[in-house]
Amino acid sequence: MVSSVWDGSDGWQPSELVPLAPIPMHPGMLGVHYAQVIFEGLKAHRQEDDSIAVFRPWENALRFQRSARRLAMPELPTEMFIEAIERLVAADESWLPAGNDELSLYIRPIMYGSESNLMLRPSREYRFLTVAFLAGGFFGNLPAPLSVWVSRTHSRAMPGGTGDVKCAANYGPSFMAQQEAAAAGCQQVMWLDSEERRWVEEMGGMNLFLVRGEGPDAELVTPELTGTLLPGVTRDSLLALATLMGYKTRQERISIDRLRADCESGVVTEMFACGTAAVVTPIGRLRDEKSAWTVGDGQAGPTTMALRDRLVNVQHGRSPGPDGWLHPVRVPGTVR
Question: Transmembrane ranges (predicted)?
Fold first, then answer.
């Protein structure tokens, strides 16, 4: 793992690459008590020439800084974030085999308030860590379409809150709704806005898209960024790739009532979730406390799978993507 510390006098100290091991924690550590914790998630992929590259790490570095600002934490310099990723991937790349698109090196940077103090104020000491592990598909290889629970009781975020940053406090409160989803036979939760409980926002750790129409006339639609949902890197990547592939794209507010009506009438032909872990995962069915409805024929649609294939091919260097999306990592002792 890569580790660095910060304090108000000396700022960020040079990072160190050290063996993965437990870290002693004082019971009064401020970050644990007051949720001053932020994190990121990104992946490194094996390339066609057996080299390794990280997908869009600069975007994660910038989002990490936005999250830090929102929680009154010190910003980690972009170069320090990227250096930590490079050092860790170079050290761990041997765990990632060639020839398996479903495996990647999942990278988890985290920063937390580490000061031992129960005063209700921002920490004056912080630790930044980056760890990695070998990961397969979040829902398995080529997953079956998800069943999704529409939560009309719980809220993930509110206007003026922290819904558009990646902080730990956004995730623990979502677990109750996830348990309700599982009890209803669903794998994921769809969150609605907290004010009207009408507008579709995102899913548990994933953004979502729907497809209106089919074939070359298909339109890709995703909820607009209102400050209460996370601006996902995969979401942004799919909007860009969809345009390159000739699809129309739209970001708009989507009401749950219209979504259901459009699914039942056939206007909405496909839906999928997307994220660093989930990549692109089809949605086949939605339900709430009173009813259930199917998206299209309930199976993965052609537009969904075309976008998934294009994204995976870009991540592995087989298809061209916009400049700068792949960040190569040099592994000492290799010549490529």
Answer: 128-150
pTM of model > 0.85: yes
297-317 residue pLDDT tens: 999 999 999 999 999 999 999
CB 158: neighbour CB atoms within 10 A? 13
CATH architecture of 146-315: Alpha-Beta Barrel (3.20)
Q: Assess contact for 268 and 212: CB atoms under 8 A.
A: yes
Residues 6+ apart with CB under 8 A from 37: 31, 110, 111, 112, 113, 167, 168, 169
119: helix, strand or coil: coil
Residue closest to 1 by CA, chosen among 17, 15, 14, 12: 17
Closest to 281 measured CA to CA, from 289, 273, 291: 273
CATH placement of domain 2-135: 3.30.470.10
| Parallel, antiparallel or unpaired: strands 104-113 and 125-135 | antiparallel
The answer to whether the Cα torsion of 294, 296, 302, 306 is positive or negative is negative
Q: Where in the chain is the domain with CATH 3.30.470.10?
A: 2-135
